[in-house]
Amino acid sequence: MARFRDYPQFTRPQLGLRQRGRARVAASSRRLRVSGLPVIQCALAAGLAWFVATDIVGHLTPFFAPIAAVVSLGVSLGARMRRSAELVVGVTVGIGVGDAIIAGIGSGPWQIALVVALAMSTAVFLDGGAIIPMQAGSSAVLVATLIPPGNSGGVDRMVDALVGGLVGLAVVAVVPTHPVRRARKDAGAVIATAGRVLQLVADGLMANDSGPIEQALKAARATQPAIDTMRTDLKGGREISRISPLYWSSKQRLAELAATADPLDNAVRNIRVLARRSLSLVRDDEILDPRLVDLVEKLAQATDVVRHMMLADPGEQPDRAEAARVLRHVAVGAKAELMRDAGLSAVVVLAQIRSIVVDLLQVAGLSRISALATLPPTVEHPAVPPELFD
Length: 390
Hints:
It contains 15 helices and no strands. It has helices at 8-56, 64-73, 80-105, 109-126, 131-145, 153-174, 181-207, 210-221, 224-243, 251-258, 261-283, 290-311, 320-333, 344-363, 368-373.
């Protein structure tokens, strides 16, 4: 008797749908885990802001206090203090313009349009951020439709906005995310991708096959959002380390991590160039010294050590010294003799390896001058300008 699995034309699409479904669920679960604490912070801040505005300040319906708390926090960790300040300024502008205009011309469709245009224009004139114009416009709408001008409603809403922003910052101080851990994981993920890209490039060069290198280039080009996320989380971490007493002691560690952002960004950019040139090298069938392929693979392995260093807690191995030791071993192999009889793409690949080593050594804590000093000297190549190896 034939079984269902004997008909691959039916089972394979079903398996594909099932795998895609599991992948979507896994991705959604990861997003929820990453945003779990910010969501809890927003919920807690909204409840506390309502309590403060009603039971302490004495407002009857301070609906803008919890709104301000949620907007000032959001699920992103970056620039929360700036968001809180922009929120209060935007509300103040919207209420001020709304009260002044609606009291004189009344309320209606064209009045609402005029008030929103004037409030948002004023906000844009004052600041180029996105939150101030948005809050100014929405506040002006509320004044024109719900809050009669000329009474204390406008002042009360400004107080509610201030209460919400301050409560949001208080929640961050009392229930903070770890200022270092999230950015460190971001950096580890970027370095992991860099290592995979280098390994794919090495595989493609070894097999003289453009397929793995094309995959590597695609992965390398997709890293910029992760780097931007790391920078945002670093900015949020700096804010947390300033306002939360629980993490005042983490400022030095955070400063060290922040110092790696630019070298890591540079390393990824150089890896993209290396992947592009490696693809040209294979497609043009250039002469390639096997030691250069080995060097790319060693660099991929060294990158993995740097990733473990980034994720390690203080006192754990591998530390910065171990990562630097492994990278120096790669640097020693980036010799000028690998350029002998090489084409332009092979020479550029070697130059990019040297640049990546310098970038990663800075991630491991060395200064740029010290990192450059680990490289062996180069010789002039007729097809390549000397500054390529700087």
